[in-house]
Amino acid sequence: MTIFVKPLLINSVFVHLNIIYILFIVAFGSKVFSQEPLGYKEEVLTHTTADNRYASYNDEGSKIIFESNRDGRWQIYLMDINGGHQKPLFKSTSNDRRPSWHPYKDMVLFESDRTGVSEIYTYSFETHTIDKVPIGLEGDKSFARFAPNGVQVVFSHRAQEGISDIYMCSNKGKRLKKIIANQHINVYPHFTPRGDNVIYFSNRNTQGEGHIIYAYNIITKDRNRLSYFKDHSEYPNWSNIRGARVVYSAKVDDMEHSEIFIMQNDARNKTRVTFNDVDDILPAWSPNDINLLVTRYHKGHYQICKILLKEPLSDKNKPLHHQQL
Q: What is the pLDDT, as a whole number, of residue 230?
């Protein structure tokens, strides 16, 4: 049951919202959502008879990179922020997928099956060269992201069927370190803007149903749960303003389709952003956190959609203080 919290007037005195929130958390767990939508303007940027997914902005917010299978295989594409000038970043005979930007260089991290398994590569806009990140692990590596310092990389490694661990290494494949391993599927890792936490989703502790979002502190090695397993929470992404909030997709209350939600980094104030009768997944923040890119199932295919937020985030630093597991 979803509870919508509003201020109460008792003897002409407003009961503070945080007190009400705590009472509901004790009674019902962290499953408290606001029904007031944050998104107020939406625009579909791709209009193809193919799938377009995994969109993200560069650090200046001037370009969008994404994957598309419009040419028969997965390739990496670039476009303007209004959807114009869509073109392949480069062409290959392999499947090149899930691109992500370097935090301050004109460089892209992506995965490709050009060796027969999924490996991680970089593409330089300056030299137009592709280089493999030499990681000493057999099997598929995916969902790779740069750390804020641009030196480290975090990624998922499929150890065996039904088990994916999360690793860190340098962008040259050195100093390989396993940070999440629990005999479950752990995928889609993202660093906080400060680089001290990694957020991801997992089927650990889900009783065989749905996924849970976790945050892992690289320094203290604490793991914290940010969502409820029956909400099917997936694809989390820190906001760029100090990681104050997290955007993610979820199916709450047995929704038929995934919608986009935003919560504080301590798992409070979960607010629904989209209200569509289709799947909205893979959200990504703009550099100033005033809009989102999402992958939406639109007219039979997945398309890239931009959502302008009604309430841009503040510049206040909100520390991570989740419920430790």
A: 85
Contact 306, 252 (CB under 8 A): no
Using a pLDDT cut of 70, give the percent of the chain over it.
83
Q: How many CA atoms lie within 13 A of 151 on its CB side?
A: 4
Please state, in angstroms and rounded to a whole number, the distance separating the CA atoms of residues 293 and 235.
12
CA pseudo-torsion sign 203, 201, 36, 33: positive
The CA-CA-CA angle for residues 70, 73, 75, to 5°, reads 75
Query: Do residues 187 and 214 make contact, with C-beta atoms less than 8 angstroms apart?
Result: no
**Residue 158 CA to chain centroid, in angstroms?**
19
> Residue 116: which residues within 8 A CB-CB, separation 6 or more?
none
Give the SS3 label for residue 137.
coil
Predicted TM-score (pTM) of this structure: 0.85
Residue 30 pLDDT grade (very low, low, confident, very high; cuts 50, 70, 90):
very low
Strands (E) located in 69-184:
75-80, 87-88, 96-101, 107-112, 119-124, 130-132, 141-146, 152-160, 163-170, 177-180
The number of angstroms, rounded, from the C-alpha of 143 to the middle of its chain's C-alpha atoms is: 10
How far apart are the two ends of the chain, measured CA to CA in Å? Answer: 24
pLDDT per residue as tens digits for the range 53-87: 999 999 999 999 999 999 999 999 999 999 999 99
